[in-house]
Design brief:
Bound molecules: adenosine-5'-triphosphate
CATH architecture of the largest domain: 3-Layer(aba) Sandwich
Structural class: alpha/beta
Oligomer: single chain
Number of strands: 10
Strand order of the largest sheet: 6-7-8-3-9-10
Helix content: 25-40%
Length: about 250
């Protein structure tokens, strides 16, 4: 642990024409933390991830990672520095097998490898519970396995910071419990995590701290218990279709 945050966003704004998707959002993430990022549909969560990962340039504001200003860097450069992400809709190389997908990510990432890449790919697949799917073509996977493959590919790049965009979405209750255990293990291995999640059981059970976006603005920040009681958060959610509950 150091006192410097691992990630710091300062006044991030992202506009698409007249739509302000993210409005002057500043927050910090400490080393080893699991930060939950929640908010109703259209709140700006995925756009904020795009800006942190480099897929979108902010209209204003800066991003520092490991005390370095990474605002102008491309996604691949940020990945090599240690930022990895998953996508809400899994995006594997569909004609490749599960194993090959992980091998590509291992080649691409900047991590140090102790043994062979093949052994490492097998270890990562076992870690996310995908070992029995290793030789399947990724296009043939059911949703739960595709979500796990997203996680495996992100882990294979050896991130310091892992951005998880709704990894639980569409999973069955037993799969959610499994993936929660994997995420805990990943954090214990020293990876810092920011997770966008609509499955409240998962985010309330995993996050040390939660930040809440609504109409692009950061409206609340606190522990899961504080967020559950926060009036502004309850109002934001009751205005939509979801409920905040642990
Ligand atoms: N490329 C784009 N062009 C125009 N508007 C966009 C673009 N991307 C996002 N938006 C708009 O920005 C706002 C925030 O969208 P975003 O996908 O970031 O929300 P979200 O919180 O991730 O939502 P969800 O929980 O439904 O995934 C929405 O109004 C959306 O329509």
């Amino acid at each position: 642990m150091t006192n410097n945050p691992l990630l710091e966003t300062k006044s991030i704004r992202k506009s698409f024409g007249g739509v302000v998707a993210v409005r002057d959002v500043s927050f910090r993430v400490s080393h080893g933390e699991i930060l939950g990022l929640i908010g109703p549909n259209g709140a700006g969560k995925t756009t904020l991830f795009h800006v942190i990962a480099g897929k979108e340039q902010p209209t204003n504001g800066t991003i520092h990672f490991k005390s370095q200003d990474v605002t102008g860097l491309r996604p691949d450069q940020r990945c090599h520095l240690g930022i990895a992400r998953t996508f809400q809709i899994p995006q594997p190389f569909s004609q490749m097998t599960v194993f090959e997908n992980v091998m590509v990510a291992l080649h691409f990432g900047a991590g140090q490898h102790t043994g062979s890449l093949e052994d490492e790919a097998s270890r990562i697949l076992a870690r996310v519970g995908l070992d029995r799917w290793a030789s399947e073509e990724s296009s043939s996977l059911p949703l739960g396995a595709r979500k796990k493959l997203e996680l495996a590919r992100a882990l294979a790049t050896k991130p310091t910071l892992l951005l998880l965009d709704e990894v639980m979405g569409g999973l069955r209750p037993n799969e959610i419990t499994e993936v929660m255990a994997t995420i805990r293990e990943v954090r214990e291995s020293g990876v810092t995590i920011i997770m966008i999640e609509h499955v409240m059981r998962a985010v309330m059970g995993l996050a040390d701290r939660i930040i809440v976006l609504h109409h692009g603005e950061l409206i609340a920040e606190g522990s899961p218990a504080e967020i559950t009681r926060n009036e502004a958060v309850i109002e934001a959610y009751l205005g939509g279709s979801a409920h905040v509950s642990s």
